[in-house]
């Protein structure tokens, strides 16, 4: 009877801690800061922590729908929307002749941008033709089409989960000042039930996967997230 009561108490307190963490994650917004040691920008937000995948639907149905049909056991998931803004980047232009008999020309352009977290390589040409206006005796320009012969973008972002003193965070790290995260949601599925110590001689704790777990003392006087 005593053992069952202790286990039930541990489960109740564990669920309450989880719910408080997840309610905070629902209203939390993305925090962005520059870390001098990493020489990178860090984006973070409170993370969802649930016992089993089906519990996630209560807090974030969109994220749950994305991962609920996965074949294997889902341990963790991160959902994000990233914007890369290269406004103000210039391109080199070169005038080329396509067909002189029809006065068809093009501006061939090339733009290379590279920083530690963002690379973009664009090449292409904008076609146009010119012809004289008999009335005004001026040259008129008729635009044609723009063709991108190369458009390569590489973005470097590191994602993960952070175990803080009283909460869990999902984070993203980017060395590029051009990167902005508009959305960042993380979920960690414990796949564990809270346990109690087998003896009263010493404390114990378990940490499934990367440090997410429950610390319980023998008297169950304190159940908390690490």
Q: Keywords for this structure?
A:
alpha+beta; 14 strands; single chain; 226 residues; 4-stranded antiparallel sheet
Account of the 3D structure:
This protein has a four-stranded antiparallel sheet. It starts with a helix and ends with a strand. Strand 6 (104-115) and strand 7 form a beta hairpin. The chain has helices at residues 2-27, 61-67, 208-211; strands at 31-35, 40-46, 48-50, 76-84, 92-99, 104-115, 118-132, 139-155, 158-163, 168-174, 179-189, 204-206, 214-216, 223-224. Mean pLDDT is 84; it is low at 195-226. With 226 residues, it is an alpha+beta fold. The chain is elongated and about 105 Å long.
């Amino acid at each position: 009877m005593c053992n069952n009561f202790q286990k039930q108490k541990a489960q109740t307190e564990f669920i309450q801690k989880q719910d408080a963490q997840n309610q905070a994650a629902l209203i939390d917004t993305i925090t962005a800061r520059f870390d001098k040691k990493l020489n990178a920008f860090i984006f973070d937000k409170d993370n969802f922590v649930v016992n089993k995948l089906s519990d996630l639907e209560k807090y974030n149905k969109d994220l749950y729908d994305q991962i609920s049909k996965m074949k294997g056991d889902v341990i963790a998931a991160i959902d994000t929307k990233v914007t890369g803004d290269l406004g103000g980047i210039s391109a080199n232009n070169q005038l080329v002749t396509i067909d002189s008999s029809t006065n068809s020309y093009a501006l061939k352009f090339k733009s290379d941008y590279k920083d530690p977290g963002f690379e973009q390589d664009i090449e292409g040409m904008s076609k146009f033709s010119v012809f004289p206006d008999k009335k005004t005796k001026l040259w008129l320009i008729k635009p044609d089409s723009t063709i991108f012969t190369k458009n390569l973008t590489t973005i470097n972002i590191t994602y993960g989960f952070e175990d803080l003193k009283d909460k869990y965070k999902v984070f993203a790290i980017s060395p590029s000042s051009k990167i902005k995260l508009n959305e960042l949601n993380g979920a960690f599925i414990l796949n564990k039930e809270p346990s109690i110590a087998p003896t009263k001689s010493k404390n114990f704790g378990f940490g499934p996967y990367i440090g997410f777990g429950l610390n319980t003392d023998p008297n169950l006087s304190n159940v908390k997230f690490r």
